[in-house]
């Protein structure tokens, strides 16, 4: 009888740098599979496109090094409104939302194998929130650019933080502008990108 045994060195735990970590305490990220390519579902109103672009620019300006970290590959994509593990990263605008989670402004789901993210879907709760799309910082609604800067952080692998100045802070209040990556956000992202 012939037996083979797979041998590998145990992976050393990594400092989290506020990233989601796998069961071996390794940070999960896109590693070098950049840019992260998103489709914008046809459910997303055209008025929201500029806010999406501003949020992406915040990441690309700091980490692109002349290259894109995040890219929109198509706008107005058709398909099911139900996010699924299908290999495509999509931004959805949902007019129906789980009533038990009505205070949730958005949800990003990432899929990974090992420490490699291969898909991220962003769902925006349009059932329970009104959004501000514009460039000016005076508004009463939830700022869509700020919300998307936060959700793109999740798509890149970042977890929530209680740091009030971070774009990854858990709650974004109506009328709050949190469009710029903070010093700690930039330091955390530098661990992987």
Report the portion of residues in β strands.
15-25%
Shape: globular
DSSP helical segment count: 3
Strand order of the largest sheet: 2-1-3-5-4
Distance between the termini: 47 Å
Number of strands: 7
Mean pLDDT reading:
91
Major beta sheet, specifics? 5 strands, mixed
Written as H for each helix and E for each strand, in order along the chain, the element string is EHEEEEEEHH
Q: Determine the fraction of residues in helical runs and give it as a percent range.
A: 10-25%
Assign the structural class, choosing from mainly alpha, mainly beta, alpha/beta, alpha+beta, or little secondary structure: alpha/beta
Low-pLDDT runs: 1-5
Rg, Cα atoms, Å? 18 Å
Structure description:
It is a single chain. The protein is an alpha/beta fold. Helices cover 18% and strands 22% of the residues. It has helices spanning 49-63, 144-155, 183-190, and strands at residues 36-41, 70-77, 89-94, 106-113, 116-125, 131-132, 142-143. The strands form two sheets. It has a five-stranded mixed beta sheet with strand order 2-1-3-5-4, with helices on one face. A hairpin with a 2-residue loop joins strand 4 and strand 5. The longest helix has 15 residues, at 49-63. It starts with 35 loop residues before the first strand and ends with a helix.
Please outline what is shown here.
By secondary structure, this protein is α/β, with parallel strands linked by helices. Helix content is 18%, strand content 22%.
Overview features:
193 residues; 3 helices; 7 strands; alpha/beta; five-stranded mixed beta sheet; single chain; disordered N terminus
């Amino acid at each position: 009888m012939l037996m083979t045994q797979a041998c590998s060195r145990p992976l050393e735990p990594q400092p989290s740098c506020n990233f989601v970590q796998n069961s071996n305490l390794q940070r999960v990220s896109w590693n070098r599979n950049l840019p992260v390519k998103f489709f914008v579902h046809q459910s997303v109103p055209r008025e929201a496109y500029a806010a999406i672009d501003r949020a992406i620019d915040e990441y690309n300006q700091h980490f692109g090094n002349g290259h894109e970290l995040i890219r929109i590959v198509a706008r107005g994509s058709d398909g099911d409104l139900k996010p699924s593990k299908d290999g495509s990263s999509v931004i959805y605008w949902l007019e129906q939302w789980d009533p038990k989670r009505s205070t949730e402004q958005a949800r990003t789901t990432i899929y990974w194998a090992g420490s490699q993210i291969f898909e991220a879907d962003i769902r925006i709760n349009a059932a329970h929130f009104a959004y501000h799309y514009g460039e000016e910082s005076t508004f009463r609604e939830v700022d869509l650019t700020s919300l998307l800067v936060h959700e793109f952080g999740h798509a890149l692998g970042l977890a929530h933080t209680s740091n009030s100045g971070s774009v990854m802070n858990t709650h974004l209040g109506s009328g709050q502008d949190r469009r710029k990556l903070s010093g700690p956000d930039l330091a955390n992202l530098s661990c992987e990108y």
